[in-house]
């Protein structure tokens, strides 16, 4: 009996000690301090890249008063040069490889704004995703143009849509119907340029047009730009004549 009492006492004591150790109420700060991380240095410790993506993404959402939830994630271990939006949970993913090509906040905003635009279409429901799946290219153009609007409203320079796209976009051989999911980058760049020219012309005189990446594109698109601008001038003259 005495033995049983001693064993019982010891087991209750051990139980008490271990409960004390595991159930000690700690605040979030204490847990973080244990790892050398506080709420003040969390981004520095865990990743300035995540912080930047969240800040630029949040600025786009807030300044455009986006009425739906979108969240941003950096896929750290994935070095493909890409970003994506997901129907299933509206996550915008930036793959680590892409960040190596981003030179400023405006270029990051261009990428995030394009993906936010895809998410806004996803919010229209599953039927819309089917329509998008069969019209991939036109929805890419649409996301670029909506993205440019989002950028300007949030105070970013839309020329960055051209510089980042020129850096990362491939020039596919096949560009026919369903043979490619994305339009040829040269076509996409031209459409984006035309949109900026018509809607936000002042940015085409901004310092960002001095970027080497903008110039390399201009060198390849000079003739198309001249033709487009000539057409626009003729159209304006016709309007004046009427
Ligand atoms: Zn896209």
Q: What do these coordinates show?
A:
The chain is mainly α and 242 residues long. The chain has one domain. It is 64% helix and 5% strand. It has 11 helices and 3 strands; from the N terminus they run H-H-H-H-E-E-E-H-H-H-H-H-H-H. Helix 6 (105-122) crosses helix 9 and helix 9 (159-168) runs antiparallel to helix 10.
Number of helices: 11
What do the pLDDT scores average to? Answer: 86
Biggest β-sheet: count, sense, barrel? 3 strands, mixed
Shape: elongated
Strand order of the largest sheet: 1-3-2
Q: Short summary of the structure?
A:
By secondary structure, the protein is mainly α.
Layout: helices, strands, pairs:
Elements: H1 2-23, H2 28-34, H3 42-46, H4 48-63, E1 71-75, E2 83-85, E3 91-95, H5 96-99, H6 105-122, H7 126-134, H8 136-153, H9 159-168, H10 185-199, H11 212-241
Helix pairs in contact: 4-6, 6-8, 6-9, 8-10, 9-10, 9-11, 10-11
Keywords:
242 residues; mainly alpha; 3-stranded mixed beta sheet; 11 helices; binds zinc ion
